[in-house]
Amino acid sequence: MKNKIVSADDAVALIQDGDTLCLSGFVGTGTPEELIIALEKRFLDTGSPKNLTLVFAAAPGDSKDRGANRLAHKGLIKRVIGGHWALVPKIAKMANNNEIEAYNFPMGTLTQLFRDIAAHRGGILTQVGLGTFVDPRQDGGKLNEVTTENLVELMMIDGQEWLFYKTFPINVCFLRGTTSDPHGNTTLEKEALTLDNLAIAMATKNSLGLTIVQTERIAESSTLNPRLVKIPRIMVDCVVVSEPENHTQTYGTKYNPAFASEIRAITDNLTPLELTERKIIARRCAYELPMGGTINLGIGMPEGIAAVANEEKIIDFITLTAEPGVIGGLPQSGLDFGCSINIDALLDQNQQFDFYDGGGLDLAALGLAEADAHGNVNVSKFGPKIAGAGGFINISQNARKLVFAGTFTAGGLKVGIEDGKVIIHQEGRVKKFVHRVEQITFNGKMAALREKPVYYVTERCVFKLRYNGLELTEVAPGIDIEKDILAHMDFEPIINKPKVMAACIFQDGPMKLNNHLLRRELDERISYDRERNTAFLNLEGYRIRVKDDVDRIATVVEDLYHSVATKFAMVVNYDGVFIDPMLMDYHATMISQMEEQYYTTCTRYSTGAFLRMKLGEALSKRKVSPHLFESDKQAKKALSKYLQEVIEDDNSNVIPIHSNTSQNEVLNPAPSPE
Q: What are the pLDDT digits (tens) for 588-600?
């Protein structure tokens, strides 16, 4: 077989003018720095290759000079198609100056597009991006005036809107691995992430292109464990052994064995965050964490939630994920963002986004750069600054519940915490709650129509998305609504009776958050809407280990019945509920009694297939409807149909769930932090 080991200079000499070059890399993780340096050197020395199309999903860069920033030379690149732009400011500057054609597409959709290129499909059909700047009815993902070709189309299929992202051939790709053999087989054992190496290699091979792999070391032929080979030789044309300084694990870390799962790191001695506005925001966001749930934490302010969860000893009750493929563990920040220690599993990046796009996330906590009266959020473009959407659109559009986290204003904001109160020492120069966002990265109106629970958490207050805008629901102690909130907004939010944020958020030391999230009193878990005669029992994360745990559920339902003096409709959330198998029948008997005595109807839901099966079997034996819906949306729809039939049958004053703006609050109440 052919020996494919060559020098970096010889490898990049094969690139032709006008080629489409695809780069792997997530920040500095997996970024083929040696190859990028060689390509830049060739262009500066010879003026060739020219007019390249550069493609990347997650910006391979450090926000300064490394990674794709090295390729920001006029004439070298003609067009850029990227998912995340914040870490490649030199290329973003070229886009702002109309020196290149520039597109920003959802990062997850780009990663999935690599597979469609490999399979010679015409494109990817998805609803990701509808209602955002990627939608052709807005900008179509174009970032400047010289970008005119439409690469995404709006399509209508069976009465539903879809976006069609077109595929294109990849002529050259730069990938990175750990160990290669002379034939090109490559493993990634010391890499923190596998990213889209396989999908990109396959797409390039099937485009009749050139795959160049940067590696750390060479092994003897036929000695690599075939199950560890992530990039097979049949897809590799050249292998380049890198200089050590150009092959660090991340831009922030030379090598951490915990990032590669070589060891498990000790987390008990991690230093807690200081009590600043960042920790206040992270703490309030942590109140929304679903026990037993799967969560994504975005870059920036949400990164602090992981530290809070670790400090509060609830990290083992949730599964944190990161978009490049990490499942479980403790996510890292800064130039190590995307990596995680003590992970449970590692997926390819495109597979992770399949999971995200299909609704696999119970909660996503993302950055809050700019929001408007409709609940729209912009994190992708601010005047001349192109940050890019990254995975934000995929994640925010498809997670079951959303928390946006950020300071209330920006640019010089100075906040203090004194005696449990928030003190604004200096207000930020830039308003973040504006009349209209510059670019729509998250569409608030669409989320409201889908009944998605959405919160906007700042250091001084919390908003919740309603059908008719943002409602101010919580205010930090020490904050004056008129002076500290309304005076610094371009619009007036809905204001009813905002609560005071929990005092423990603003105190030193752990909040004992596990007491709230794992052992919330049941009377805090039940709510009732008199107008609709509908109750909601949120058992999320509840543990039924003894009979008293079942009896307490019966007691709160019975108390509600005596309070309202009539039977009512009930929706029960069983997400993350644990029921001791020895108590399943006891619990089902209690349900049967509740149905007979107190409910007009009841719908239940859980994302846990095993619980749905076991509880369903126990209910069936008691002649109770055994069906548990898979989502709150399905349960609401079923209850809505029942209530509509009640109206048609007896002209009662029960109102269908979908009839006005407050229904989401009734059926999906937020856990109170008090």
A: 999 999 999 999 9
